[in-house]
């Protein structure tokens, strides 16, 4: 199959997977809902009266207050993390760069936790509301990305060893910071911080979705617009510059973009690692590394993957809601080993 | 012949060390200029200054009379192309995709219509058509060098810089690359090429600039520059200069193998 044919096949399968994930996710749970009731309820919300719409107000509120915000949050966060991963890999020129692995997510979590612990006393919670957490998460993520970038880049190239070691250092530091916050905070704060460390879509609210979704959409559009430049960046910084790319500006813009996408995702759902690693990698294998199609497909693929993962997280153990971050790491960890092994075999060493 | 790019009084000092001192050099349309000199003489630094990668500590570089610092990235990419020595690609793009990237400075311009022709010509000139569907990352060193050259040719700029384009190539491809460079000059472009093989430079260059210890030793036709005395002095090795088709061929004077 040519890359174009594979691209079409992939788009169709991703769209089907996405729709299936959304539909199943809205049906399954403690209160089973039929597909007809869901379609009917959505149509009624759109102003079309129909016979399928559920009459039971409990079903109606389960769909609209519990399930839909959680599903939309999953879609947005999945897309944000996958796009952030693909952008990171483009600017580091390395398929192992990922917000969770190199510490951007834990930096953002530390930012968010400090907003919770210190926000009240500084009057931030009152001034910014839900946005306060997002802004702090963004700041933490940005700081972590900048550190990783400037430490692990040398002469226009990233060394894998340095990249991963920097990630270890940042994860250790942010982990200690979170532990300190746990120590400082009251019981409610502690619960929230533990929730971040594991990652979960549980309890997503429409007002949180209203922050995450628009930023994800804007960030994805921005990344796709920059897509051609990321292709040129694969030739190395000097060659990209010779082809007219303002490499410095692209670099700074992309770092902000990664921090923004990771920051909003982490602010409300905690650390969900490896989505940004697995999704772009699988898509690159299917349709090649060209960044415009890669970024679009990664956004859709990330959304579908996280929706499925969340469905598994809340149904696999009856009556329990597993942390989704644990689940993605369980699958992502071995996948990371495999990538590491392959890269080592190919380049004959760790550089 | 008109000067496309001109360096006036260029010096480069890095960490207190003088890499280039007071160099004046013109790059002219329609000719191949070879930059030669011993290792560490400053050839690559000079190329970086002339192509706008590196700002000289003193002196200036002008492109068509304009200071190179006043030209934005994208416009500069339409004026000059550069083949660097380092040509790794981070992701498995195909050869065709890599060559097409050479056209990116011309997006949303009227020259966009030339894309297909420029790419086809570049692939033809570098003898890489049989590699078109391959992944760049799977190629050998010499193949990568030729594909990168194809990308640079596809960029279709009036000035072309080639930093050691023959380094990884076999004998036939070395000659082909230099023939391509000479062909570009015949079609009116300015070509600057860094080469180590003096005979190769002498055979294809219209003008040679000999750089030694950060200074421009001399610039002129190959016959003027490559005298046995000068080459022997600069390289610290006795050489013999013979003539083939009116071009000098430089041979080291080697001792007879002891029996």
Describe this structure as you would to a colleague.
With 351 residues, chain A is an all-alpha fold. Helix content of chain A is 78%, strand content 1%. Chain A is built from 15 helices and 2 strands. A two-stranded antiparallel ribbon of chain A has the order 1-2. In chain A, helix 1 packs parallel to helix 14 and helix 9 (206-225) packs antiparallel against helix 12. Chain B has a single domain (3-252), classed as 3-Layer(aba) Sandwich (Rossmann fold). In chain B, 32% of the residues lie in helices and 29% in strands. In chain B, the strands form 3 sheets. Chain B has a 6-stranded mixed sheet, sandwiched between helices. Chain B has a 4-stranded antiparallel sheet with strand order 2-1-4-5, with helices on one face. In chain B, a hairpin with a 2-residue loop joins strand 9 (207-212) and strand 10 (215-220). Chain B is globular and about 55 Å long. The chains are: A mainly alpha (351), B alpha/beta (259). Chains A and B meet through helix 10 and helix 11 of A and helix 2, strand 6 and helix 3 of B.
Write the layout of secondary structure elements.
The complex is a heterodimer of chains A (351) and B (259).
Chain A: H1 3-27, H2 35-45, H3 57-92, H4 104-122, H5 124-128, H6 130-152, E1 153-154, E2 157-158, H7 160-184, H8 187-198, H9 206-225, H10 227-233, H11 237-242, H12 247-269, H13 275-287, H14 291-315, H15 324-347
Antiparallel strand pairs in A: 1-2
Helix pairs in contact in A: 1-14, 3-9, 3-12, 3-13, 3-14, 4-6, 4-7, 4-8, 4-12, 6-7, 6-12, 7-8, 9-12, 9-14, 13-14
Chain B: E1 3-14, E2 17-28, E3 32-36, H1 43-50, E4 58-63, E5 66-67, H2 73-79, E6 80-83, H3 95-101, H4 115-125, H5 141-154, E7 159-163, H6 171-186, E8 190-194, H7 198-204, E9 207-212, E10 215-220, H8 222-225, H9 228-235, E11 239-244, E12 247-252
Parallel strand pairs in B: 3-8, 3-9, 6-7, 7-8
Antiparallel strand pairs in B: 1-2, 1-4, 4-5, 9-10, 11-12
């Amino acid at each position: 199959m040519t890359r174009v044919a594979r691209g079409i096949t992939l788009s169709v399968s991703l769209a089907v997977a996405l729709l299936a994930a959304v539909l199943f996710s809205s049906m399954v749970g403690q209160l089973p809902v039929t597909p007809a009731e869901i379609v009917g309820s959505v149509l009624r919300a759109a102003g079309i009266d129909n016979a399928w719409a559920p009459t039971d107000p409990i079903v109606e509120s389960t769909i609209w207050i519990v399930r839909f915000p959680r599903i939309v949050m999953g879609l947005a966060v999945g897309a944000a993390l996958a796009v952030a991963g693909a952008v990171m890999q483009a600017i580091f020129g390395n398929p192992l760069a990922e917000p969770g692995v190199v510490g951007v997510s834990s930096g953002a979590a530390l930012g968010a936790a400090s907003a919770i612990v210190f926000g009240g006393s500084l009057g931030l919670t009152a001034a910014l509301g839900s946005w306060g957490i997002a802004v702090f998460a963004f700041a933490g993520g940005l700081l972590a990305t900048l550190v990783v970038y400037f430490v692990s880049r040398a002469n226009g190239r990233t060394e894998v060893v340095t990249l991963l070691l920097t990630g270890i250092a940042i994860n250790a530091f942010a982990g200690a910071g979170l532990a300190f916050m746990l120590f400082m905070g009251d019981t409610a704060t502690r619960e929230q911080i533990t929730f971040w460390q594991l990652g979960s879509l549980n309890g997503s609210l429409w007002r949180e979705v209203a922050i995450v979704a628009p930023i994800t959409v804007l960030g994805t559009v921005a990344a796709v617009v920059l897509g051609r430049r990321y292709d040129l960046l694969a030739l190395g910084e000097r060659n990209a510059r010779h082809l007219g790319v303002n490499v410095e500006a692209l670099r700074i813009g992309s770092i902000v973009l990664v921090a923004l996408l990771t920051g909003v995702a982490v602010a409300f759902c905690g650390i969900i690692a490896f989505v940004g690693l697995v999704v772009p990698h699988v898509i690159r294998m299917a349709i090649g590394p060209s960044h415009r199609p890669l970024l679009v497909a990664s956004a859709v693929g990330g959304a579908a993957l996280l929706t499925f993962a969340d469905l598994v997280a809340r149904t696999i153990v009856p009556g329990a809601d597993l942390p989704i971050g644990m689940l993605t790491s369980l699958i992502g960890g071995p996948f990371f080993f495999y990538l590491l092994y392959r890269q080592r075999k190919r380049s004959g060493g760790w550089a | 012949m008109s000067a496309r790019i001109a360096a006036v009084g260029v010096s480069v000092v890095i960490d207190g060390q003088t890499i280039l001192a007071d160099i004046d050099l013109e790059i002219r349309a329609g000719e191949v200029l070879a930059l030669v000199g011993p290792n560490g003489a400053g050839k690559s630094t000079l190329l970086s200054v002339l192509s706008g990668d590196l700002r000289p500590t003193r002196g200036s570089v002008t492109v068509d009379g304009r200071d190179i610092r006043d030209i934005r990235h994208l416009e500069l990419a339409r004026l000059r192309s550069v083949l660097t020595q380092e040509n790794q690609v981070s992701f498995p793009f195909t050869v065709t995709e890599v060559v097409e990237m050479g056209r990116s400075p011309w997006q949303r311009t009227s020259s966009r219509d030339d894309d297909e022709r420029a790419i086809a010509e570049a692939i033809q000139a570098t003898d890489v058509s049989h590699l078109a569907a391959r992944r760049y990352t799977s190629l050998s060193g010499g193949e990568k060098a030729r594909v990168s050259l194809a990308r640079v040719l596809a960029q279709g700029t009036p000035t072309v810089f080639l930093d050691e384009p023959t380094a990884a190539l076999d004998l036939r491809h070395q000659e082909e690359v230099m023939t391509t460079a000479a062909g570009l000059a015949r079609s009116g472009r300015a070509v600057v090429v860094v080469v180590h093989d003096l005979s190769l430079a002498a055979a294809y260059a219209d003008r040679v600039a000999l750089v030694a210890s950060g200074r421009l030793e001399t610039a002129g036709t190959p016959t003027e520059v490559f005298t046995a005395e000068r080459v022997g002095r600069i390289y610290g090795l006795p050489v013999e200069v013979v003539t083939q088709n009116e071009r000098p061929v430089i041979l080291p004077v080697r001792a007879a193998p002891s029996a």
